[in-house]
């Protein structure tokens, strides 16, 4: 009898234990948030992916409200800065926007790639871009609309390639970016880095008499290198790094 009671207690404890365990979600390691901060601050450069143990952290960050709130802080600051400017009236003041993860979001694609935890795959990324369905990042759209009201002309400068001009144009238009001064895409055969390409294009803009009053991008390579613009804004993106 005593043996039977002991057996029953043991089984009950095991069942209770398994119920308790199945209800628990593994917490991401605490350093994931610190790594993200270091990535955004450009203290970590040239990284390929977040480690797999931070997959849940990145997914929660991108799909929860934190990503949007972080972006809104950047956008609100950019709008306040733009509103403080005394424009010349020449019509030559421009604002440079990157496209992917700045004007448009590839989050629907990234969701299937572990939000950057899986290594970059060019073929599937290009396929997503070609669909032309990337949604606008609403904060950036808000900045864009305010700049138009102020008389600052938008220029899109992207490492998307020239053969993606039509799909990029249509995608931007469909998402509410209704006009722009220029849409600058990378020549298909160009071998230089994204950063070198963007610096060269900004030089051409300045040489043509434009004043780059602001420049916003999700990569440091969007905003580093003279002429970078009178003021730069780093849009958050912990999913991938572009050299
Ligand atoms: Mg980008």
UniProtKB/TrEMBL annotation:
Taxonomic placement: Eukaryota, Viridiplantae, Streptophyta, Embryophyta, Tracheophyta
Single GO molecular-function term? acid phosphatase activity
The secretion signal range is: 1-17
Of which family is this protein a member? Belongs to the APS1/VSP family.
For this UniProt record, the keywords arranged alphabetically read as follows: Glycoprotein, Signal, Storage protein
The domain of life for this entry's organism is Eukaryota
| UniProt xrefs under InterPro entries | Acid_phosphat_B-like (IPR005519), Acid_phosphatase_pln (IPR010028), APS1/VSP (IPR014403), HAD-like_sf (IPR036412), HAD_sf (IPR023214)
Q: Does the keyword Glycoprotein apply?
A: yes
Role description: May function as somatic storage protein during early seedling development.
**What is the name of this protein?**
Acid phosphatase
Checking PROSITE patterns in the record gives:
PROKAR_LIPOPROTEIN (PS51257)
By its UniProt entry, which CDD domains does this protein fall under? HAD_VSP (cd07535)
């Amino acid at each position: 009898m005593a043996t039977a009671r002991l057996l029953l207690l043991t089984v009950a404890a095991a069942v209770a234990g398994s119920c308790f365990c199945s209800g628990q979600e593994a917490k991401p390691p605490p350093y994931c948030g610190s790594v993200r901060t270091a990535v955004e601050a450009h203290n970590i450069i040239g990284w390929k992916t977040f480690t797999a143990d931070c997959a849940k952290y990145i997914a929660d960050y991108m799909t929860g409200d934190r990503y949007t709130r972080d972006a809104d802080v950047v956008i609100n600051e950019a709008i306040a800065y733009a509103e403080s400017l005394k424009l010349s009236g020449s019509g030559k003041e421009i604002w440079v926007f990157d496209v992917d993860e700045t004007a448009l979001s590839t989050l629907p694609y990234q969701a299937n790639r572990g939000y950057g935890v899986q290594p970059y795959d060019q073929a599937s990324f290009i396929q997503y871009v070609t669909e032309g369905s990337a949604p606008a990042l609403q904060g950036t759209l808000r900045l864009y609309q305010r700049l138009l009201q102020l008389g600052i002309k938008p220029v899109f400068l992207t490492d998307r390639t020239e053969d993606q001009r039509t799909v990029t144009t249509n995608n931007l238009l469909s998402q509410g970016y209704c006009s722009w001064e220029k849409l600058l895409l990378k020549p298909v055969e160009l071998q230089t880095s994204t950063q070198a390409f963007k610096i060269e294009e900004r030089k051409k803009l300045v040489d043509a008499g434009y004043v780059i009053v602001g420049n916003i991008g999700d990569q440091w390579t969007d905003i580093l290198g003279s002429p970078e613009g009178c003021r730069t804004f780093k849009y958050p993106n912990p999913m991938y790094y572009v050299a």
